[in-house]
């Protein structure tokens, strides 16, 4: 299909503005309902639990988990990666499957202990398990700082989206103010109830868009098998010379001199069907493994705590196995479609992101496509906001409950803890907005690397603490060594960056430090080993005595398949056979992800949660 001239007038977006306005009003209505639920919860559970916690069944829990994991990057970033790098973007499907593997590894024990010990803050387990102020503060730093950079990225994405939608009529600073006012209003009105209930609305909107996009895009531009080969039926030759950025390039008669191909992925980007380089293979492997720590992010841990039961958590994990095929496939299709048709579109759409460029072209086709673009825009705003408000709540709970009440002002009233949490959210939004105003793309990339390194530092604290009698001093030493090494490598540079990401160097130093200090401590007399330990590993095992945990061998198999799915077995740069529009290595990777889905399904099925919520003797609530 030939490109269409871009309409840059405001009246073309009137319907879009109306729908976005209705969506925002709907969020306010939901927040009001959440406020009523919060008032009732205060009467029965107190201020802190009413604001920071809750109890939600399988459906609500799945939808809030879905909208929290699938951020604005799912809608904007994945299409852009597919447009720029082709089938490397398939890794995002495997990413969520690795996240579920992490959930199967951590959540059953974390959820059970949280239920019997009465956890509210995301890091209550760490405080309960190790019991020292130094580790409490270190873990708070590792939890809050990554969230700051994460929220900054969400604010920048929201601002770019709103500016693009209004054709620049709203300045960047005003977009950021709108964003902050909305998520802070939702938090003050309903706390966690607002977050979860708005997540439900936002998830429904996102899922509806995700299910519709592939069909509509394929109907207009062709299915992937039809637009993949270089000689596909949609092949056209167009002139790259245009009179202005809004004009459609002229179609050439035959393969005239200076004309470029369009309409077929391989004709426009033949490198997409070449076997990836070794550095790309390493990048995919480390990217997938990095997702293992996502369930330890504060706002994801909160989803573990607010489950009504372990059985509901199991249902959510099973549903999340299917989620990436629904949520991330559309973005990949959008990016690949733009990569094929990009040369025949106006320059303004060629220079736009994959999401914006395709949306601009699609909305000019007909009324239904315009409506779909409106839904896609709302779902993008929903994805950004749902992730941001969850992250803000996670950070504010760490500061107010863990740091201030848990360490500095233990006698602080519950009402003041909540007020402090709200004030913390305001400060976080202000700081994130300031960083967003002055950060460029390169700086945001560095922040994301730093964020990943910070999250990785918590892996020994949670992972080893849930399964092994690890010493507090070992975990503390590991975090300190990991953070120092991360800063040093970011400053001096990583000579093997093409093969080993910086975050893994710092993580390796963390793990080695933990092993070294743990070995030294284990050689000491037992009574010198631990100071202040409240929750022992024996108590954790007792908490699981009424459950049959997911088979760890199946979790390990999921991770093994994820690593094996990377394209390591071919010759870099070699042209690949095209099968159903995919390069052969891409088809193999998708097949591996399907295997992970089934293995994960078996692991979920074999997990037998307790039939009731009885507290195991000796595990009474510690808070």
Model description:
- The chain is mostly helical.
- It folds into 2 domains: 10-439 and 536-606, Up-down Bundle (Amino acid/polyamine transporter I); 442-535, no CATH class.
- The protein is built from 26 helices and 4 strands.
- A two-stranded antiparallel sheet has the order 1-2. Strands 3-4 form a two-stranded antiparallel ribbon.
- A hairpin with a 2-residue loop joins strand 3 (578-579) and strand 4.
- Helix 18 crosses helix 19 (414-438), helix 20 runs antiparallel to helix 22 (472-492) and helix 20 runs parallel beside helix 23.
- The termini are far apart.
- Mean pLDDT is 83; it is low at 527-533 and 613-623.
Topology:
Layout lengths: L13 H32 L1 H6 L5 H12 L2 H14 L5 H27 L6 H7 L2 H33 L6 H19 L1 H30 L2 H4 L8 E3 L21 E3 L2 H4 L9 H13 L7 H8 L4 H18 L1 H13 L5 H4 L3 H9 L4 H42 L5 H25 L2 H16 L2 H9 L4 H21 L9 H21 L14 H7 L8 H13 L13 E2 L2 E2 H23 L17
Antiparallel strand pairs: 1-2, 3-4
Helix pairs in contact: 1-8, 1-9, 1-18, 3-9, 3-14, 3-18, 4-15, 4-18, 5-12, 5-14, 5-25, 5-26, 7-8, 7-18, 7-19, 7-20, 7-22, 8-9, 8-18, 8-19, 9-15, 9-18, 12-25, 13-18, 14-26, 15-17, 18-19, 20-22, 20-23, 22-23, 25-26
GO molecular function, one term: symporter activity
Subcellular location: Cell membrane
Keywords: Cell membrane, Ion transport, Membrane, Sodium, Sodium transport, Symport, Transmembrane, Transmembrane helix, Transport
């Amino acid at each position: 299909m030939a490109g269409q001239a871009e309409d840059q007038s405001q009246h073309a977006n009137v319907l879009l503005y109306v729908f976005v306005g209705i969506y925002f009003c709907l969020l306010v209505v939901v927040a009001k309902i959440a406020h009523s639920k919060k008032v009732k919860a205060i009467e029965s559970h107190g201020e802190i639990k009413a604001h920071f916690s809750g109890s939600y069944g399988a459906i609500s829990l799945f939808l809030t988990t879905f909208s929290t994991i699938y951020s604005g990057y799912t809608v904007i970033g994945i299409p852009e990666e597919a447009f720029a790098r082709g089938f490397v973007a398939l890794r995002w499907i495997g990413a969520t499957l690795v996240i579920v593997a992490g959930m199967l590894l951590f959540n059953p024990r974390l959820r059970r202990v949280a239920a019997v010990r009465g956890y509210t803050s995301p890091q209550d387990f760490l405080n309960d398990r190790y019991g020292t102020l130094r580790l409490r503060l270190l873990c708070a730093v590792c939890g809050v700082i990554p969230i700051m950079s994460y929220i900054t990225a969400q604010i920048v994405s929201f601002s770019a989206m709103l500016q693009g939608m209004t054709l620049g009529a709203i300045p960047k600073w005003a977009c950021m103010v709108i964003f902050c006012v909305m998520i802070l209003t939702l938090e003050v009105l309903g706390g966690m109830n607002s977050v979860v209930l708005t997540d439900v609305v936002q998830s429904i909107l996102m899922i509806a868009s995700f299910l519709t996009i592939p069909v509509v895009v394929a109907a207009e531009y062709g299915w992937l098998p039809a637009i993949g080969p270089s000689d596909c039926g949609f092949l056209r030759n167009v002139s790259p010379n245009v009179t202005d950025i809004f004009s459609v390039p002229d179609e050439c008669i035959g393969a005239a001199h200076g004309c470029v191909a369009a309409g077929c992925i391989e004709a426009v980007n033949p490198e997409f069907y070449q076997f990836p380089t070794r550095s790309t293979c390493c990048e995919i492997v480390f990217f997938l493994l990095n997702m293992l720590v996502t369930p330890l992010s504060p706002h994801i841990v909160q989803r573990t705590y607010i489950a009504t039961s372990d059985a509901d958590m199991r249902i959510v994990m099973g549903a999340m196995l299917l989620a990436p095929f629904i949520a991330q496939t559309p973005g990949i299709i959008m990016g690949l479609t733009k990569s094929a048709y990009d040369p025949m579109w106006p320059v303004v759409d060629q220079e736009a992101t994959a999401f914006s460029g395709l949306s601009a072209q699609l909305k000019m086709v007909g009324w239904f496509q315009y409506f779909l673009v409106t839904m896609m825009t709302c779902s993008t705003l929903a994805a950004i906001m749902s992730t941001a408000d969850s992250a803000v709540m996670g950070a504010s709970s760490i500061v107010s409950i863990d740091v201030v009440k848990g360490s500095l002002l233990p006698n602080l009233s519950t009402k003041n803890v909540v007020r402090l949490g709200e004030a913390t959210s305001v400060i976080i939004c202000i700081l994130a907005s300031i960083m967003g105003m002055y950060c460029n793309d390169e700086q945001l990339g560095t922040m994301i690397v730093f964020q990943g390194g910070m999250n990785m530092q918590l892996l020994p604290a949670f992972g080893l603490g849930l399964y092994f009698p690890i010493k507090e001093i070992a975990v503390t030493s590991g975090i300190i060594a990991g953070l120092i090494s991360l800063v040093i490598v970011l400053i001096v540079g990583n000579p093997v960056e093409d093969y080993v990401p910086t975050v893994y160097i710092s993580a390796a130093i963390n793990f080695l430090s933990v092993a070294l200090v743990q070995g030294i401590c284990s050689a000491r007399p037992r009574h010198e080993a631990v100071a202040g330990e409240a929750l022992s590993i024996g108590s954790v095992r007792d908490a699981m005595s009424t459950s049959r945990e997911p088979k760890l061998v199946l979790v390990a198999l999921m991770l093994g398949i994820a690593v094996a799915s990377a394209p390591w077995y071919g010759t870099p740069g070699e042209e690949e056979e095209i099968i159903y529009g995919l390069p052969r290595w891409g088809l193999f990777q998708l097949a591996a992800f399907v295997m992970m889905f089934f293995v994960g399904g078996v692991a979920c099925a074999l997990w037998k949660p307790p039939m009731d919520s009885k507290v195991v003797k000796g595990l009474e609530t510690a808070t």
